[in-house]
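Format is sequence with structure; example below:
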Amino acid sequence: MIVYAFDVDGVLTPVRSSWHFVKRVLGVGSRFDGYAHLFFSGLIAYDEWVYLELRLVKGTSLKVFKKILSSIPWRCGIEELVEFKRSRPGDLFIAVTGGMLCERVVKELRFDACIGVEVEAVDGRLTGFAKSYTDFHSKGMALTDFLYEKGIKPSKVICIGDSINDLGMFKYCDISIAFCPSNMIKKSHAHIYIPSCSIKKLIEVLKQL
């Protein structure tokens, strides 16, 4: 059994950050983009960054929140990935994301599982807290913990990501693929480097592994 572990934001969708997308739609993004700077400068922990970001959307209707997420498009050619998954019935497709599209990944793309952000809501409104989320640097550990808890022992783990928060996941993979990478990702960061953002190109590479 092969496990295909996909990042979501920037890989399965052209939108690099579902967090940023939601904030922009709600009109709370531009004034508070400095939170990321605080994290990358080492001034706040990732837990604090998550809390500060979610506090911005506190009180938002869960229905509205999901509607915003549903408007994020899948990357052009995503149907080819769905077909590729269908042709690999014995393998597992798992999304490991710091974003908020887990529900859609499982429902619309038919992934077997998704590890990502789950926001908390009470009486139909966001509380400003998350039930769960993956740590910025620990996506690889989140993946291995999931496989261990489910008793899954794959013959190979292939990981696909696009940004620096995927580097931790790459370390736990037999084959790492930088797909449509951000300018912070170098060729040396992954076994395979695909500068193209074409799903078709990605599938061509996966078929050879």
Remarks:
- Residues 81 and 87 are 10 Å apart (CA to CA).
